[in-house]
Design a protein that fits this description.
By secondary structure, this protein is mostly helical. Helices cover 83% and strands 3% of the residues. Strands 1-2 form a two-stranded antiparallel ribbon.
């Protein structure tokens, strides 16, 4: 039975599609952690923060891999008129700010970041994944 070799673009497109399909689970974790923090339920929040951060870091690693595979094509891509590179820079900055707030045990700031900034930037990451999966 002959095997068909997949091109790098096809493999990257499949990876982007799979990551986008996992996004609702990650978004749910993010929202649950933010809600627990906002309610002051520290026990629940602590249980949710570890998998939330793991998932967000995993998403970043997937994006980094996909972006490196895209090369110069990525620099030409736009999402809602904005350069993908600028969106990615903002995403990484929001993750760093989130890590800093967690390390500083600033739970109010962590809740705000999760509920607003990181949540919004995560939606942009999913939109980028969908673009990449379409091979634009």
């Amino acid at each position: 039975m002959p095997t068909m070799e997949k091109t790098q673009a096809e493999i990257l497109g499949e990876a982007a599609r799979e990551a986008a399909n996992a996004a609702p689970v990650i978004k749910s974790l993010l929202e649950s952690a933010a809600f627990a923090l906002q309610r002051g339920n520290m026990e629940e929040a602590q249980k949710l923060l570890v998998p939330t951060m793991t998932s967000l870091n995993f998403m970043s690693q997937i994006m980094e891999t996909l972006e490196s595979g895209m090369g110069e094509r990525l620099a030409a891509m736009k999402l809602n008129g904005e350069d993908i590179i600028a969106i990615q820079s903002r995403w990484l900055a929001s993750l760093e700010e989130l890590k800093k707030s967690i390390n500083n045990n600033d739970l109010v700031r962590t809740a705000d970041l999760l509920a607003y900034e990181v949540s919004s930037e995560f939606d942009s990451q999913v939109a980028i994944l969908r673009l990449l999966s379409e091979g634009h």
